[in-house]
Specification:
With 374 residues, the protein is an alpha/beta fold. It is built from 12 helices and 15 strands. It has 2 domains: 206 residues, Medium-chain alcohol dehydrogenases, catalytic domain (Quinone Oxidoreductase, Chain A, domain 1, Alpha-Beta Complex); 138 residues, Rossmann fold (3-Layer(aba) Sandwich). Bound molecules: NADP nicotinamide-adenine-dinucleotide phosphate. The site of NADP nicotinamide-adenine-dinucleotide phosphate has 31 residues, from helix 2, helix 5 and helix 6.
């Protein structure tokens, strides 16, 4: 549940965003654009939490194993919005770092030891700059872009060559920019952890970034996606995109029974649980024997009254998923290329309008992904 205090502080953060957008853009555009400088947004402490402010800074230089990327597009995830509401901490906080984990662009320079990329390559950043493959180390999990490692909301970024992937040829930069967090998370939840098979029933909660990628991937594989939403117009769109059934979780608090009926009493084989506290036990109620739940998010908060014995009786598998490695991203890109998959982009904002993109995410009036083009 969101408290009234949370709602007030979110509203205040939105107002701040708009105010600083105007101020900061004036300041940055007032500086003559000099080829040695670039524009980027940075987190700054606000009266509560953080705000993003545009700055003009020196263009970075690629070290021996590093690559310079001219960013053409970025995309938002719920986490990016949540970060603005975190308490400012001068020791461990984000002040001065660049927001947004997701972005795609073109390689414009490489360091002398770089072997994986050359100038002109089309690339996207990995969510974790230091998680290439296998199980993650603690260091890898502390290298999340747009948080503990530099983010993508910058005209040019510098990164280790290991923190990039080539993007599928059929995708535009806008489309490729939607992949690093939401798409990789959905892919790992369904394919790597869930071992999804064609014909299986898949439950997707809400119509945000992760869930809509779950819908697109399930449909491409020949599985049977069932999706929930608070809005009937979004559910209609989901049916056009390949959902085999839908339920409105706002108008029907017993939405899980409606979802189970669609399976003819079989139950759902796969769940991408992004709802958390309010959805997990309901999803478990309708899980098929041998089913899999990927624990991904906490849109309604974390923690739950999950009947753990039920997990045992039905031989269920529950996995915690925290995005994935570069190897996972590359495997997903193969699937995306093979099926010529295109992400669902709700709206594209200009770089100068970045705070308005955050506002749209806060409003909930979107489906799929929100993109900022540079
Ligand atoms: N573990 C990881 O690696 C990972 C990666 C990505 C995201 N996440 C987490 O997963 C969650 C979703 O992220 P996202 O970026 O996909 O979010 P998003 O794009 O902002 O999607 C939010 C949508 O979810 C729906 N929703 C909101 N509250 C809900 C609730 N209580 N129950 C069911 N649906 C609800 C709404 O859809 P309708 O408008 O259709 O109702 C809303 O528009 C977040 O908690 C995020 O932090 C985790």
């Amino acid at each position: 549940m969101t408290s009234r205090k949370d709602a007030r502080s979110r509203k205040a953060a939105c107002v701040r965003l708009l105010f600083f957008a105007a101020m900061a853009f004036d300041a940055a555009s007032a500086c003559a654009q000099n080829s040695d400088t670039i524009r980027q947004y940075q987190f700054e402490p606000a009266s509560s939490g953080y705000q993003i402010v545009m700055k003009e800074v020196p263009q970075p230089v690629a070290g021996d194993n590093e690559v310079l990327v001219r960013v053409h597009a970025t995309s938002l995830n719920r986490r990016d919005l949540n970060m603005l509401h975190r308490d400012y901490d001068e020791n461990t906080g984000y002040a001065g770092s660049i927001p947004l984990s997701d972005g795609a662009g073109e390689v414009i320079a490489v360091g002398q030891n770089v072997t994986r990329f050359e100038v002109g390559d089309r690339v996207a950043g990995t969510f974790f700059e230091k998680w290439s493959d296998g199980a993650p180390s603690e260091e890898a999990l502390w290298s999340d872009r747009g948080g503990n490692a530099g983010g993508m909301l910058s005209e040019v970024i510098v990164t280790h060559e290991d923190g990039l992937v080539s993007i599928p040829d059929h995708l535009s930069y806008d489309e490729a920019a939607t992949l690093p967090c939401a798409a990789v998370t959905a892919w790992v939840g369904l394919f790597k952890r869930g071992h999804i098979e064609p014909g299986q029933y898949v439950l997707l909660e809400g119509t945000g970034g992760v869930s809509v990628f779950g819908l697109i991937f399930s449909d491409a594989l020949g599985a049977k996606p069932i999706i929930t939403s608070s809005r009937d117009d979004k559910l209609e769109r989901a049916m056009e995109m390949g959902a085999i059934g839908t339920a409105n979780y706002r108008s029907n608090p017993d939405w899980q029974s409606e979802a189970k009926d669609i399976t003819g009493d079989h139950g759902v084989d796969q769940v991408l649980d992004v709802g958390g506290r309010d959805t997990l036990s309901k999803a478990l109620e309708i899980l098929a024997y041998g089913g899999h739940i990927a624990l991904i998010g906490g849109l309604s908060g974390y923690g739950s009254d999950v009947p753990t014995d039920a997990i045992m009786w039905i031989n269920a598998t529950v996995s915690g998923v925290y995005v994935g490695s570069r190897e996972d991203f590359e495997a997903m890109n193969d699937f995306i290329s093979e099926h010529e998959i295109r992400p669902l982009i709700d709206r594209v904002f200009d770089f100068e309008e970045a705070p308005a993109a955050y506002e749209l995410m806060e409003s909930g009036d979107f489906m799929g992904k929100i993109v900022i083009r540079l």
